[in-house]
Write a structure and sequence with these properties.
By secondary structure, the protein is of the alpha/beta class. It is built from 12 helices and 12 strands. Strand 10, helix 9 (279-287) and strand 11 (292-295) form a beta-alpha-beta unit. The longest helix is centred in the C-terminal third of the chain and has 22 residues, at 341-362. It starts with a strand and ends with a helix.
C-alpha cells in the first residue's frame, strides 16, 4: 500500500503564489509515487478573508473590481478542482480535523507563511499539526515560514512544545530558521516548493506575439515611471497580471487581474522582462530564467534577500527613493540573461538538497 500524505497549507485563496506552492508540493510527491491529498482546512479567519473579497463593505465597493474578483475566485477554484486532490470533506476547526487524522501516514505542514503569528490570522496551532500526535502519523514541515515575524514573544514556549513532536522540520527562510532554537531542534532550510517541479503539464501558452514587460505587483507612481521609461527605451509593451493597477493602467497593453494560474504561468514563460514586488513574482522570474527587477517591499524584503543574495542577484532589488529612473535603467546588466552557469548550479544544488530532505529524511 502506498504511503498516504496529507498536506495542510494556505490553499483556499486567490493568491497565485499560495495556490501554486500547494500544487507544486503535491505534484512533486505524486511524481514520486505517494498518495497525496490537500487537507481542505478553511478556518474562520480565511473564510472571512474570502467573504471580504466577495462581499466588500459599502465604502470599498467597486463594481468592476468586484466582478473581476469573483471571476478570479471561480478561476482559482477551477484550477484547484482540476489539479489538486482535496480531502473528501472540509474542516473548519480542530475538532473536525481530529476525526480525520487517522487516515494519513504522514502529515506535512507548509509551505508559505502558515506560521506567521503576527498576521491577521494569528497563531493557529492546526498549522503546527496540533491535531496530530506522533502516534497518529509522522509530522513533517516543509518550507514553513514565520513571515516577517521577528520574535515569537509569548508564543515561544507554546510553539517549541508543538514542534517537539515533529519527525522532521524545515523552513523556507533564514528568519524562520533563526526563530527556532537550534539547540533544541534539528532543522533544515529548504527552497520554496515551487522550485521542485517544472510546469510543462499545467502551463497554458498565450497568443501574445509582441515582446513585453510583465508586471506582477502593486506599483506606485515612482515604480510606474520606471516601468514606463524602461518599456519606451526597450520598445516593449507592458502587461500586468493578477493585481489591480492604478498608476500603471494608462500604459498597459493588457490588464489581466483575474486570469487562472495556468495562464498566469504562461505570461511569465513568454515575458521579456519581469517587474514585481511579490515573493512569488521573484520566484517565477527565476524559475523561467527571466531578467527582472524587484522593487523594495519592506514587508517582504527579508525573504526576497534570502533568494537573491545566495545567487548573487542582490543588484536586482531596487529602491527608487531619490533615484532617477533613467539613471537606473542605464545599467545594461539588468537586461542581460539572468542566470549564468555558476548561478544555475548553485540553485540546482539548493533544489537537490531540498528534494533529498523530503524524499530521504522526512519521508523515510
Amino acid at each position: 500500500m502506498r504511503t498516504k500524505i496529507g498536506i495542510i497549507t494556505y490553499h483556499f485563496t486567490i493568491n497565485y503564489g499560495a495556490t501554486l506552492q500547494t500544487y507544486a508540493l503535491s505534484q512533486f510527491l505524486k511524481n514520486h509515487g505517494y498518495d497525496v491529498e490537500i487537507i481542505d482546512y478553511r478556518p474562520k479567519s480565511i473564510r472571512l478573508e474570502q467573504r471580504n473579497y466577495l462581499y466588500p463593505k459599502r465604502s470599498w465597493f467597486n463594481p468592476n473590481l468586484l466582478m473581476k474578483t469573483r471571476r478570479k475566485v471561480i478561476n482559482m477554484n477551477k484550477f484547484m478542482e482540476k489539479n489538486l486532490k482535496l480531502s473528501a470533506r472540509q474542516f473548519y476547526d480542530q475538532n473536525s480535523l481530529n476525526e480525520y487524522k487517522h487516515l494519513y501516514d504522514v502529515v506535512i505542514c507548509g509551505s508559505d507563511e502558515i506560521w506567521n503569528v503576527n498576521s491577521p490570522r494569528g497563531l493557529d496551532t492546526n498549522y503546527f499539526l496540533d491535531f496530530v500526535t506522533g502516534k497518529d502519523a509522522r509530522k513533517v514541515s516543509y518550507a514553513a515560514s514565520f513571515g516577517s515575524t521577528t520574535s515569537l514573544g509569548v508564543n515561544q514556549e507554546k510553539i517549541n512544545n508543538l514542534l517537539r513532536d515533529f519527525h522532521s522540520l524545515s523552513v523556507r527562510d533564514n528568519n524562520s530558521f533563526s526563530l527556532i532554537n537550534q539547540d533544541d531542534f534539528r532543522i533544515k532550510k529548504v527552497v520554496d516548493p515551487t522550485f521542485l517541479i517544472d510546469y510543462k503539464d499545467v502551463i497554458k501558452d498565450n497568443n501574445i506575439e509582441s515582446k513585453y514587460i510583465l508586471v506582477y505587483g502593486l506599483l506606485g507612481e515612482k515604480e510606474t515611471r520606471y516601468v514606463k521609461t524602461l518599456a519606451e527605451k526597450e520598445g516593449l509593451d507592458i502587461i500586468a497580471i493578477g493585481t489591480q493597477q492604478t498608476h500603471l493602467k494608462p500604459f498597459l497593453k493588457l490588464d489581466l487581474f483575474d486570469i487562472p494560474p495556468d495562464e498566469w504561468l504562461g505570461f511569465f514563460n513568454k515575458a521579456s522582462f519581469v517587474v514585481t514586488n511579490f515573493f512569488h513574482g521573484l520566484v517565477f522570474a527565476i524559475i523561467f530564467n527571466k531578467p527582472f527587477i524587484v522593487f523594495s517591499n519592506p514587508q517582504k524584503i527579508v525573504k526576497m534577500k534570502d533568494i537573491l543574495n545566495p545567487l548573487g542577484l542582490e543588484n536586482r532589488l531596487l529602491n527608487l527613493n531619490g533615484l532617477n529612473p533613467k539613471e537606473i535603467i542605464s545599467n545594461d546588466e539588468l537586461l542581460s540573461p539572468l542566470l549564468i552557469e555558476k548561478q544555475k548550479n548553485d540553485l540546482k544544488k539548493q533544489i537537490e538538497i531540498s528534494k533529498d530532505y523530503l524524499l530521504f529524511e522526512a519521508l523515510k
